[in-house]
Design a protein that fits this description.
4 copies of one chain form a homotetramer. Chain A is mostly helical and about 190 residues long. The first copy, chain A, is built from 10 helices and no strands. Chains A and B meet through helix 1, helix 7, helix 8, helix 9 and helix 10 of A and helix 1, helix 7, helix 8, helix 9 and helix 10 of B. The first copy, chain A, binds a DNA duplex (21 and 21 nucleotides) through helix 3.
DNA sequence: TATGAATGAGCTTTCATTCAT
DNA sequence: TATGAATGAAAGCTCATTCAT
């Protein structure tokens, strides 16, 4: 399974070779077809789905158990986002896979939208709304329908750029995080 | 050339078939190799490069010939960015190709960085800096090193999401544009 | 394997077609690549190597188990050489393949040198030396460093000419054998 | 023309590329077909034929104008043979081409036999016969029908081995020349 | 005489997939 | 559950050859 995720991530769906997945996993091609009778597509779907689930638990845990102002929560979530983009490669791989193949596998787009993007946007919107109510943020800030996406975009884009260009050439995620927080806090200030 | 861009866009680099490019273009495979002796890779490079150049001329023209406040220029540029993401499919295709294949072809990453990303960031920074000097924006706003990337990210991400999810499911670029402008103008205000 | 040798022999390395080898062998091209992942070159190497080994066993057996004077042994070996050049086509094919492709595949040259040429020269030299010691041949005959090669050359050349020209037009190997033996016996006489 | 000879020699008939010949010669493929309407085969034939003619003039000149004993003439001719194999690469190329393609182009075999091999054999036989008559060599030495071929073989084989193995690994042509002369002079002595 | 665009057949190679064991 | 031999359909690429200019 890990083998499949890695192979797909490194080469894309079309270029990924069943034989390579098998040998990464230390088994033979035949066995792959035993477990995934649907072949490459079957394996691909399984690889993606198996990756998505554990992904958002941390963010939910953080938001659920948070004690502090909404300002601080937003900052913590943003830190988590930028932090995450610097650490675990599993999520990067997944993001890239989705990016690459989403338009050729509509179900993937659906999956991404419902399991990753929408929850993130909802979470962001809620935090801003609660912050407005609490006086942390300007009243009505959360009414702007595109705000959540604008808040999320730099975080995701930072990860995308790093995947494309490598950590050295991509815009620094630390600098982006600072500028991002600064801009948001000023822009949302009451 | 158009044929190549289309085929690559529809199928990705790995799945694109030389024969398909040839027949789309109404020539034979042999001729493709006459003009692109390096084969598929050569053709791919040529397709990308041929697309990149005309892309930034418009933005440069706009910035160069602009008469009005820096605030208005920034707004116009952002409109251009979001506008662009809504129109010509060609640039979307290009962006996607770069995103997907950049890490497999380091020269593409280099190309993207030097011809698209860096000029955009420079342009954004310049406008903010000039705006600060003119009193349109808060003094020192342009000193934040990650600011340009944060300003650019929502525009690019809007395009990425639309490519992945389709115009209906992706966050509305109109809404994002409004929220983005609102956030920036408040966040950069003196 | 036989199929490969035949195809290579008939058409040369460059013109040999993998499909032809496969169909001669009654299998598909795919299977060829299953067993010879290195492709045509791999198959070629295997074909050559598989042919070389059995080739010199006979000569060694003859020399090892020989009872008689060294003069008679040398005669028997020369007969074997000329005899061999008249019989099995397989060895001729092999020789030709080596001749043709040796400079394009240095490992083949190495193979020929170490498994065919050098053992032959060593064997010839030993027999002459032993013959000198036994008084069959002139003392010091084996000290001439090029002698072994000169002894061997007419045998090999006889085969080469027959391959090139066919049995009718090439110098008769029977006549060469007689003249060769006569010249040697006189030239090496004490 | 030179370009063609080199290309054919380096790659063999099948692997030789018309484009390579053209570019070696500094012209375009089209022009090749202007001069050799029969295509590759035409060019090949022309290349070979244009090489053969100048080849034997030197040997004939030497034999014709020689003043000295037959023993000395034979020695001079053998020296010429071994010497030649060390110098001009043109003849090596030709020899290899003939070796490689003779059985696929019967006319080449014919060409080789009539223009190179037969004259050489005839020359050798004549010298021996004249030497016998003059008392330089044993009476009746030239009657052995295979003698000329046996005399010629080490010279040719020396060249073949050097082509196959390179000058370092092939039996030394100097050593072969010495051993060859020694053996012949003893073997043909009255 | 010279060019080079254009062709198309044919080649090697790859790889998802199947299946007997 | 596990293997690996076997298949066959593509696909990338090459190259001799043609032909309009």
């Amino acid at each position: 399974m890990d083998a499949a995720v890695e192979e797909f991530a490194e080469r894309g769906f079309a270029s990924a070779r069943m034989a390579a997945v098998a040998s990464r996993a230390g088994v033979t091609k035949g066995l792959l077809y035993h477990y995934f009778p649907g072949g490459k597509l079957d394996l691909f779907r399984a690889a993606i789905v198996g990756c998505v689930n554990p992904l958002f638990e941390e963010a939910r845990r953080l938001a659920a158990g948070f004690s502090g102002s909404r300002r601080e929560l937003l900052e913590a979530l943003i830190d988590l986002g930028y932090g995450r983009t610097e650490m675990e490669r599993r999520e990067h791989i997944l993001l890239k896979l989705l990016l690459i193949e989403a338009d050729r596998f509509p179900e993937l787009a659906e999956l991404y939208q419902s399991t990753m993007l929408q929850p993130s946007l909802d979470l962001a919107r809620e935090v801003v709304k609660a912050g407005s109510a609490a006086g942390d943020f300007r009243p009505g800030a959360a009414d702007e329908p595109g705000l959540a996406a604008v808040l999320l975009a730099p975080i995701v884009m930072s990860a995308v750029w790093r995947m494309m260009l490598g950590a050295e050439k991509a815009p620094s995620s630390q600098a982006m995080r600072n500028a991002h927080l600064d801009l948001i806090m000023r822009g949302l200030a009451p």
